[in-house]
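Quick one before lunch.
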Amino acid sequence: MKTVSILIPAYNEEESLTHLFTRLANLANKLKDYEFEFLFVNDGSKDKTLDIIQDYAEKDSRVAYINLSRNFGKEIAMIAGLDHVKGDATVIIDADLQDPPELIPKMLHFWEEGFDDVYAKRETRDGETWLKQFTSKMYYRTLQSVTHIPIQEDTGDFRLLDRRVVEALKEFRESQRNTKAMFSWVGFHKKEILYNRDPRVAGETHWNYRKLINLAVDGITSFTTAPLRVATVAGMLVSVFAFIYLIYTVLSALLVGSSADGYPSMMAVILFLGGVQLLSLGIIGEYVGRIFNETKQRPLYLIEEYHGGKPSRRSASKTRPKA
Ligand code: UDP
Ligand code: MG
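Model of the uridine-5'-diphosphate complex:
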């Protein structure tokens, strides 16, 4: 019998967990052909999330959990989970039920047909402001145009991954992670299914614009060096103009005779060049910062407790040999 792992990163989700668990358990009871593992990753929640999970784990042997030593963020919580899932396939799902678990049978269906990465694409996003929808759209567009890998638009982390995709993702040990772009990078056979994104059942979103901007900058800087190229091109263009202007000033001084005016244009040039230089330095700094962070080679996360539920043996059938 094939094992399917459901990976649930959870941060302060005490209100959502009961709803989620009931829906997942109902679903799993209907899908008799598979063995299930529910792997919760408690990402340093400050509420009762861990207690609730531990409670489930006591009553239900399908429940496994990882308790991280503090809040590491969803991206890290996901890799912690991927490192520990036992299933032949893994479904990553949000704890707040914005991703309907009822889509899982459909994902399994396509997995059985041979697809490795069955991802859910949002058709609508109820309960999100137009500003969030707009920024998210612009972000995908930008990421798409500067990286050379096809990025799936309007797609979150809600997806089913075959064992071999999980094994591939486990080899990505970078600390500033953009999992969405990694899903695209690894390739394999992808299948898209459409769904309506529901509003959260309870609690509040943990994202704010500061976090989203960080994620966006990480997403771009971790997958492309195109901004460095922008700095180069801008520098070249500005130099060309500066050179032309230099010739113009020298010639006009020689032919017409110099005068003291020209202060506004001088200021404009100095300020403009200063701006371009700062921008370029900033871009270089982004990359130097990334190099700094990655060279520290810290562990991605620390685990306070791991409880491994019932399907105790990882089925080796589909596991890729280690290189
Ligand atoms: N999450 C997490 N760590 C965090 C923030 C969020 O594990 O630091 C989890 C959260 O519990 C939820 C999922 O990531 O299961 C998505 O978070 P959220 O619903 O806040 O994001 P949104 O759906 O608004 O993008
Ligand atoms: Mg959510």
